[in-house]
Design a protein that fits this description.
It is built from three helices and four strands, in the order E-H-E-H-E-H-E. By secondary structure, it is α/β, with parallel strands linked by helices. It has a four-stranded parallel β-sheet with strand order 3-2-1-4, sandwiched between helices. Helix 1 runs parallel beside helix 2. The longest helix has 13 residues.
């Protein structure tokens, strides 16, 4: 995949409220990907990441859950698909 292929693609990023996950969410959102911003405990931080993506012209969906709980990863994917229509990339 080339960077020119990324605009319009859907990416779900787990742990996107802080650190590397937040940086990836902002960066990929900034090049036109639509981002599922997952968080477990950092609701305020995740909201800031989503706002930054939106301010850069992208689209973001906030997703909450503990991926260690059975069924949560599947639910996060299902919510992303319900909102954006599919998932192209999972981080």
């Amino acid at each position: 995949m080339h960077i020119d292929d990324l605009p319009g693609k859907i990416c779900l990023i787990t742990g996107a409220s802080r650190g590397i996950g937040a940086a990836l969410a902002r960066g990929l959102g900034g090049v036109g990907m639509r981002i599922g911003v997952h968080y477990r405990s950092g609701a305020a931080e995740a909201a800031t990441v989503a706002a930054d993506i939106t301010a850069a012209g992208g689209q973001a969906l906030l997703l909450h859950g503990d991926v260690a709980v059975p069924g949560t990863p599947e639910r996060l994917i299902a919510e992303t698909v319900a909102h954006f229509g599919r998932v192209d990339v999972l981080i």
